[in-house]
Amino acid sequence: MMVLGIETSCDETACALYSGARGLVGDRVLTQAIHAEYGGVVPELASRDHVRHLLPMVDALLRETGVSRTELGGIAYTAGPGLLGALLVGSAFGAGLAFALGVPAVEVHHMEGHVLAPMLDNASIKPPFVALLVSGGHTMLVAVPEIGRYEVLGESLDDAVGEVFD
Fold first, then answer.
1. Sign of CA dihedral 60, 61, 64, 69
2. pTM of the model
3. 13, 32 contact by CB (below 8 A)
4. Helices in 5-125 by DSSP H: which ranges?
5. Are residues 24 and 51 in the same domain?
6. 5-62 pLDDT, tens per residue?
């Protein structure tokens, strides 16, 4: 099945096509540079930039990969955690496109996506395992006894390591 993934949880607009048979078919990522002049992410500006760029990015990705909308078997989008306005843009777009195409829409937990992403191109990674998440506002050590079950073993008490890069 060909799935379109949509990510708009903060200041990056991203989309990707993944096929169970072919793996990652293509992806596009746009990092919003405007926030640098403000010293951090401005949520309203992030949301507006997602609105401006998401549809053209998805259209370009489909064109580049030669995949038509009718080939999509599902739409997955980040449902949280993240900036509320930014998440609403991605969820409205993803759910709306899925409805229009008559395919399932799947909400994806942002941190679960980070934990499971390495499994997409490495079949040898299987639970149980321990994951170290260092992403934006999150730094945590997570036990994964099975997919869908997670236990936070520890996390930062104040600032997250990922904030250094943001």
1. negative
2. 0.89
3. yes
4. 43-65, 84-101, 110-116
5. yes
6. 999 999 999 999 999 999 999 999 999 999 989 988 999 999 999 999 999 999 999 9
